[in-house]
From TrEMBL:
Domain FAD-binding PCMH-type positions: 189-362
EC number: 1.17.1.4
Organism, as annotated: Congregibacter variabilis
Single annotated GO MF: xanthine dehydrogenase activity
Protein name per UniProt: Xanthine dehydrogenase small subunit
């Protein structure tokens, strides 16, 4: 059984299929049709709802895409949908601002915008434009009503006052903490031939995997649930790693950062950026706030997509993962993890328990470039990560990895060889750029042609050199410009 709060009341659910989404629950089980289904793939934001979670610092309001969020994953949280935020006949301040700024255009996108703004209203932020753009990055408006929506956000954030949620915060926290304690060891959702398990620790994950070899693992569901909503593949047996309390850790020692399998992109951001500020742009352009709040680093690696953004980062920085099973744990360098298209070193009964990133080395010059059709909320056509060890301006060690250039995320060993020994100020980088064609044979697909991928990957080497010598004109993102200065010779 799962238990969560909805409209201040405790809801308990057991007898529904494991692949029921939060959107299915709202629209089909509860008849609450304010939350819309636009794309059913996490892309448009029409289905945005907010989960209030109990943390040590108090309540955290997390926007998610209900269309791909497993219902089983919301145990112990408060589910807030667009119907819930009005107080009697009085609009919530974000709704009022949407009306007053003429920002409410179509009935599809508007509820999603409102909920993203509701999460922002409760976030610990300054109300700056950058924060608003980040919060709205996962919401599409096809009628180009974006400017009034941003105006509405600015208006609502200019005078944040207590709403019914902040007034009830302590009572909600108490209710949520009590719910957490009701976690059971048996399947959380159970119906005919369908089970959703929420194991409380990593040992239990391993045990369940051994007992249910047919099960699929789920963390955020931001990849997995698309199999259900887009390809209509049933997911009858699911094991949710995000329920395991010992998989939420972020541990840093002098050598490594270790991220448990349940750590979301949003949760790992601060630790990663402290060591590697050059990754700020890549992380902020990963999906949307909804996707980063739901999806995990481990899920991105285990998914083994050739166009995933984290694999090239971990390949270039010498990362590794820990695979765990009922037989024990083994360490696998990321260099050995991806075998062929969507085939990895992970064996039956194993799961990714930890993702390991080395701490920053001295004299590293790092760049991560994401090339996609849209700046926000888009999958990479090409993602190139360059980690160069330097003595003065000379490259003494080069690790270069690409996504989108082969059937797996892959290192470019010829490029690395061509870069090693190069003086980044006085030597030409053309030979290293030409070596791209030796290392990679990309394919044509809907995102980009093979020729485009080869050309753009080679041009990224020119960009790398330009940025090294201090030319920030290659950047469109302001963070990138400042990071170029921070990181050049760190
Ligand atoms: C709108 C949208 C935008 C996106 N943008 C990006 C982007 O910019 N860059 C990018 O790289 N990706 C992007 N993605 C893909 C996805 O969000 C990421 O890959 C995410 O990190 C997956 O994590 P998850 O926790 O949701 O994985 P899930 O969907 O839960 O799982 C993914 C796969 O890994 C398996 N799995 C999950 N956890 C484990 C584990 N611990 N051990 C072993 N197997 C496991 C699952 O069985 C499944 O096969 C996007 C997706 C959407 C829908
Ligand atoms: S319906 Fe489009 S993101 Fe969920
Ligand atoms: S609000 Fe829906 S298209 Fe603009």
């Amino acid at each position: 059984m799962i238990r969560f709060l909805h409209q201040e009341r405790e809801v308990a659910i057991e007898d529904v299929p494991a692949d029921t989404t939060v959107l299915d629950y709202l629209r089909e089980h509860r008849g609450l049709i304010g939350t819309k289904e636009g794309c059913a793939s996490g892309d448009c934001g029409a289905c945005t709802v907010v989960l209030a979670k109990a943390t040590e610092q108090g309540l955290q309001y997390v926007p998610i895409n209900a269309c791909i969020a497993p219902l089983g994953s919301i145990h112990g949280t408060q589910l807030i949908s667009v119907e819930d935020i009005k107080e009697g006949a009085t609009w919530h301040p974000v709704q009022r601002a949407m009306i007053e700024c003429h920002a409410s255009q179509c009935g599809f996108c508007t509820p999603g915008f409102v909920m993203s703004l509701f999460a922002l209203y409760h976030a610990d932020i300054k109300g700056e434009r950058e924060e608003i753009l980040e919060a709205l990055g996962g919401n599409l408006c096809r009628c180009t009503g974006y400017r009034p929506i941003i105006d509405a956000a600015e208006q609502a954030l200019a005078h944040v006052e207590d709403d019914k949620f902040s007034r009830r915060a302590q009572a909600t926290l108490d209710q949520l903490r009590a719910l957490k304690d009701t976690e059971s060891e048996t399947a959380a959702l159970e119906s005919t031939h369908s089970h959703y398990f929420r194991p409380g620790n990593a040992d239990h994950v391993a045990q369940l995997l051994a007992q249910h070899p047919e099960a699929r693992l789920v963390a955020g569901g931001t990849d997995l649930f698309l199999e259900n909503t887009q390809s209509l593949t049933p997911l009858p047996v699911l094991i949710d790693v995000s329920a395991a309390s010992d998989l939420h850790h972020i541990d840093c020692d002098t050598e490594h950062m270790r991220f448990g399998a349940a750590v979301t992109h949003r949760a790992c951001q601060a630790a990663v950026i402290t060591d590697y500020p050059e990754l700020t742009e890549l992380i902020e352009r990963f999906g949307s706030l909804q996707i980063r709040s739901q999806g995990t680093l481990a899920g991105n690696i285990a998914n083994a997509s050739p166009i995933g953004d984290w694999p090239p980062v971990l390949l270039a920085l010498g990362g590794a993962i820990e695979l765990r099973s009922s037989a024990g744990t083994r360490l696998v360098p990321l260099d050995d993890f991806f075998l062929e298209y969507r085939k990895t070193e992970q064996q039956a009964g194993e799961f990714v328990a930890t993702v390991i990133l080395p701490r920053r080395k001295k004299n590293l010059f790092l760049r991560a470039y994401k090339i996609s059709k849209r700046f926000e909320d888009d999958i990479s056509s090409v993602c190139g990560v360059f980690a160069l060890g330097l003595e003065g301006d000379r490259v003494t060690e080069a690790k270069v990895a690409f996504g989108g250039m082969a059937a797996i995320p892959k290192r470019g060993t010829s490029v690395e060889l061509a870069l090693t020994g190069l003086d980044l100020v006085s030597d030409s980088i053309d030979a290293a750029a030409a070596a791209i064609a030796n290392d990679f044979e990309p394919i044509d697909d809907a995102r980009a042609s093979a020729q485009y991928r080869l050309t753009v990957a080679a041009r990224l080497l020119t960009r790398l050199q330009q940025e090294y010598i201090g030319d920030s004109a290659t950047r469109v993102h302001p963070l990138g410009i400042s990071q170029a200065g921070v990181s050049s010779h760190g």
